[in-house]
Amino acid sequence: MSFSLKTEQHPFGWSKEIVDVINERNNTVLITKEPKLEDVIKDIDISSVLTITANDFKLDPDVHSRVSNETNKGDRRIFEVENPVAHSIGKIEIGSENGNPYVEYSDVQLIPEGERVGPVTVGGKVQLIKPVVNFDFKGFVLDWLEVDSGLKNEMNVEFKLASYETEPLRIPLGISIPVKAYGLAGAEIQLFINYEASGKIFIEFEIVEDSSYNLGVKKEGSDYTPFNRSTSNLSADFLSLKGEAEAKLGLGLNVNAEVLQFTLAGVDITGGYKVKAAGEIDKDRACFSEKGEIYFESTARIGSTKNTFWDITYPFLSIPHRQRSTCSYKELIADPLVLAPGETAELGISGVDYKQETHPLMLPDSNMKLKMENLNVATVNYLGEVRARANAKTGDQTFITVTYNNDRDAIIKVMVPVRIADPAFLDEKKKMVETIGPAIRKVFETAEIVNGAYRDFSYIENDLKTLVTPTYLEELRRYYEEWMHPSLDISLFAEPVSTVLKFEIIESSSTRLVLKTVIPNRGLSSGTNVIYTFVKEGQKWLLDAVDSESFVDSPINPSVDQIHEYLQTSYFEDARIAYISTGIERIYNQPAGSYDERKYYLFTAQTIYSQYKVKFYAHDGSTVLNEK
Hints:
Mean pLDDT: 73
Largest sheet: 17 strands, antiparallel
Helix content: 10-25%
Number of helices: 6
Distance between the termini: 69 Å
Radius of gyration: 35 Å
């Protein structure tokens, strides 16, 4: 024999099995125990469609215990809730608009489940649009469990993370929705926020979502099949951030089909926004990078709360939403491109901020637009991949207009030249910058030493005239007479250039060439960009000037293929090189007293003796080698 009664925790009833009856004078004492699940529900056959109204909403007991005042205004219920930490009053309003129930929060402190990280302050509004729960079961066998509801969400959440690695937080929003069917069955719905984050930061997160949840589980033969027809139109913004974070914030519904105190089935639905962000944001200035995705996650549970029979996880759905940088830049810089017909290259773009610091911009970026001037010469896509037309000819030229708009500062633009040159032309010009320095150095090394000093410059002058113009000859004379001494190494053209990592034709005519390449940071020096100017005299190209440009103004930013070739030829001729991944590292700049973001590429190098990991920094070409 058994009976049931309603409790705060079990609004559909709480079944107890009577094991003994004791009559004592005027009192009858019932001795009870927890019944078995199969004894209570084995003969129950229920198929229900449950609609949800604002009257079904109620405060959870832990939140209700903090209510200091409750008022009713028509179909609106307003609860004033004491915030235990802030010693302030928040408000929760439950009501209905056009028949759609909503809950609105104003500075309400809630306590996350699990790890104690302090209160979470929530604000904003959640509205269910025509919510319906369908379930159909007989005894132990669930044939169908479905939740179908629109969801309008304008919530903001703020709290301070306690550690660098915080366990996922489940934040109950203090609202439960028990919907009764017949006399002993129904659906219990709870609203919650899921939050996952890493990083020791204070964070405010605002999420605006207009979703349609239609998820469930159905029985097909002996198996259960999940279905997910949910959609979302979502945007999310950080209101305050300093540091780095990987975060996932989503609003969810937890729907359980219940008989008395037994949960027969449930669907746990979370949908929201996950983001990886780094930088600083405040009300007046913003500089951060963000890569975000919309996600849906669901788990179907079939069985009792104490003895779950099945646990079905829904397929994970992740939709790329946006990737952007919102820094305040005063200008953009980008290296010109020289492509052979049909060749593809990666566009490298950096922003210069108001502290004169350069930050590489990652593409795609929803705040940046790329437009090719002449599509008959080349094309560019949103990923920054530039492709020369196969029928383009040497000498053809066009420009890419790069526009950056962070919706805060003035719009800035840069024009990036794209020139076409056939492979033979490029190889010839690369050879010019690769060989001119060593050729000049070789002449200097032939200088004779007499009585502990080099002989007069005139003894090597004629050999140099075959390589350089009279203008640059005077530059070499000053170096020879003022800096060279037999006791010192010759510092002129001491390090080889790398046309593999960077090679640009800045100017090209029948009488003048301006070519740019790079000396990477190999540890001997910090490296630099090198710009060679050649002038044609007769049938011969002569060097007329050599200039340098810092990596701050023009970082190398090579492609993965360029780095692969550079490592293969420069460091590991007998090794197998393989690309692993790309990332951003914050490196302390001691002279400037600040951190710089530096993009790196990670490779493995397999030799016959060992295997190494090579980290290549795109900014200056420096490498870090670690044996695995």
